[in-house]
From TrEMBL, chains A, B:
Subcellular location as annotated: Cytoplasm
UniProt-listed PANTHER family: PHOSPHORIBOSYLFORMYLGLYCINAMIDINE SYNTHASE SUBUNIT PURS (PTHR34696:SF1)
Organism encoding this protein: Pseudogemmobacter faecipullorum
Gene3D superfamilies attached to this UniProt entry: Phosphoribosylformylglycinamidine synthase subunit PurS
Primary enzyme class: ligase
Catalytic activity as recorded in UniProt: N(2)-formyl-N(1)-(5-phospho-beta-D-ribosyl)glycinamide + L-glutamine + ATP + H2O = 2-formamido-N(1)-(5-O-phospho-beta-D-ribosyl)acetamidine + L-glutamate + ADP + phosphate + H(+)
Location, primary (coarse class): cytoplasm
Family that this chain belongs to: Belongs to the PurS family.
Record-given protein name: Phosphoribosylformylglycinamidine synthase subunit PurS
């Protein structure tokens, strides 16, 4: 079973990497980019076969390690 | 209009960051994680209002800057 975790900085947390991308896109001539946020995506191959159990386990991984929940939010998709 | 770009290393390209996550999850007691790949997600706020035009422009951004197409693949979603 595959799971995809998307980790983004929470709204209001400064994202210098996203800001750098926005600026660079402007330099390259892409107008009309009003904001950029960059995050991480983590794709996991799991041996679990039960969808609900897999989701619970991946959420535990996020809380324990994959995301810093003080400043980041995460979304789990089971594929 | 919002767009989401997901950039992943192509299959066959070594992903040491993903491998480090896999190892760390094992250390934390999460068994059954067979593989991990880490990528980037970039969320763009665009002033464009035409969906097809926005998709074409975001793909151009990927080819020019957001992804290194030699070793990375990208996926564009217009939200």
């Amino acid at each position: 079973m595959k799971a995809r975790v998307t980790v983004m900085l929470k709204n209001g947390v400064l994202d210098p990497q996203g800001e750098a991308i926005r600026h660079a896109l402007g330099t390259l001539g892409f107008a009309g980019v009003e904001g950029v946020r960059q995050g991480k995506v983590i794709e996991l191959d799991l041996s679990a076969t039960d969808k609900a159990a897999a989701e619970t386990e991946v959420k535990a991984m996020c809380e324990k390690m994959l995301a810093n929940t003080v400043i980041e939010s995460y979304r789990v998709e089971i594929l």
